[in-house]
Amino acid sequence: MTAQPNHEPQPLVLETRGLVVGYGGRPVLRDFDFKLRPAEVLCLIGHNGAGKSTLLKTLFGLVQRQDGQIMLDGRALETVEPRRLTAAGVSLVPEGRGIFPGLTVAETMKMGLWSAGVPAAERADRLDWVMSVLPALKQFYERRAGNLSGGQQQMVSIGRALLSRPRCLLMDEPSIGLAPKLFQDLLQPIRQLQKDTGMAILLVEQNVKEALKISDRVVVMKSGAIIREALPEELNDNAKLMELY
Ligand SMILES: Nc1ncnc2c1ncn2[C@@H]1O[C@H](COP(=O)(O)OP(=O)(O)OP(=O)(O)O)[C@@H](O)[C@H]1O
User: Domains along the chain?
Assistant: First the structure.
């Protein structure tokens, strides 16, 4: 008997069903259904205050949901907290970079290896791997993070998020404060890594024009709801984007 091809669709990397999240009793996301597919770069855009960061933080367990399900690889998670998500291959590049200005890049990475739970015997190789993805890190490795440019700090933040070798990367406005050229310098290596490894990326961005260049799918949010799903090429002229804002 010949083996039958497996037609089972791959499970979604992350999914929410009926998600409800808010602050102090005021809901931000209501009955929110969302899907992140394997090996895609999904760009999440929308007005300030639409709830994009809230979604990312909730998916990573930094904000607690009030109701609904969060599914990882098709299975509902009982507890959603950063350590559990990191161990399962999800990593977050937080809004505002989240780096300690007084630490050198080397110290930041050392701490990152520890908090990602990388076994001591694998740490040197893991660092080498991150440096192979972002070689520019070597140029300022011994400098204090607080003395670096915005683009360099963002590279440190992304490098730290890669230390766990994630298969799913959540990025909250990595381009904030960066010129378009810097955006591409920073994110093209991540796009390449994503293509090489099949990693899934959820990218929240205000810099829509640059973000669309490296995205496979776009979701537009407004006031806590998804108002449009599209391919990047469907939104690549300003008029179409303006309709959504
Ligand atoms: N810690 C918090 N406490 C209270 N309200 C909050 C908190 N964080 C966010 N909010 C509110 O929740 C709503 C959604 O905010 P969120 O940061 O998720 O939006 P966003 O789409 O990421 O916007 P931005 O692009 O401005 O970051 C906003 O009204 C915001 O004021």
Answer: 14-244 (3.40.50.300)
- pLDDT of 112 over the 80 cut: yes
Contact 66, 23 (CB under 8 A): no
Question: What is the whole-number distance in angstroms between the Cα of residue 127 and the centre of ligand 1?
Answer: 34
pLDDT digits (tens, 9 = 90+) for 81-107: 999 999 999 999 998 878 899 999 999
- Predicted local confidence at residue 207, as pLDDT: 87
Complex prediction ipTM: 0.96
Q: Looking at ligand 1, which atom is closest to the CA of residue 53?
A: 22
Minimum CA distance residue for ligand 1 atom 16: 51
User: Does position 1 have pLDDT exceeding 60, yes or no?
Assistant: no
Nearest CA to ligand 1 atom 6: 23
pTM of the model: 0.92
